[in-house]
Amino acid sequence: GGNQKKILELNPFHPIIQELNRLYKEDAESDAALDLANALYDTALLRSGFSLKDTTQFSDRMDKLLRRSYNIDMDATVEIPEEFDAEEEEEKVEEEGEEAEEEVVDETVE
Fold first, then answer.
1. Cα radius of gyration (the chain)
2. How far is residue 64 CA from its own chain's centroid?
3. Which residues, other chains included, contact 21 with Cβ-Cβ below 8 Å and sequence gap of 6+?
4. Distance from CA of residue 8 to its chain's centroid?
5. Helices marked H in 8-105 — which ranges?
6. Which has more confidence, 102 or 38?
7. Of 60, 59, 58, 51, residue with least CA distance to 6
8. What is the DSSP letter of 20?
9. pLDDT in tens, 4-23
10. Helical packing angle, 31-47 and 55-69, nearest 10°
11. Residue 8: CB partners within 8 Å, gap ≥ 6?
12. CA-to-CA distance for 59 and 71, rounded, in angstroms?
């Protein structure tokens, strides 16, 4: 039922567990180690059919893990080039114009 005991089994020889151990020994306060440990726990929950209590935290952790894995600056943000910004504005104006045309109703009576 709802109080089902959850058991997480770890293989100490698995490369991810070995990396987690290395990170922790290197710095017990490491954000990388904490994020990796939480990601392992969260993915184990998901694989076992459980749901996550906080999907936002999970998404944030995954974002950080992906950025670390691909050497993407943690502070890098989305930067839309001006030409795309201008195209988007033009599309909005065109769409609004089309919507206005669709709203015109022929009220002529024969």
1. 25
2. 9
3. 12
4. 24
5. 15-26, 31-47, 55-69, 82-103
6. 38
7. 51
8. H
9. 788 889 999 999 999 999 99
10. 120
11. 41, 44
12. 18
For the chain, the residue count is 110
Q: Where are the beta strands (DSSP E) in the chain?
A: none
Give how far Cα 21 sits from Cα of 17, 37, 71, 74, 108, Å: 6, 10, 21, 23, 79
pLDDT band at 83 (very low <50, low <70, confident <90, very high): confident
Q: How many CB atoms lie within 10 A of CB 39?
A: 17
> What six digits make up the tokens of 51?
């749901």
* pLDDT tens per residue, range 23-69: 999 999 999 999 999 999 999 999 999 999 999 999 999 999 999 99
CB atoms within 10 A of CB 20: 20
What is the amino acid identity at position 105?
Answer: V
How many C-beta neighbours within 10 Å does residue 58 have?
Answer: 17
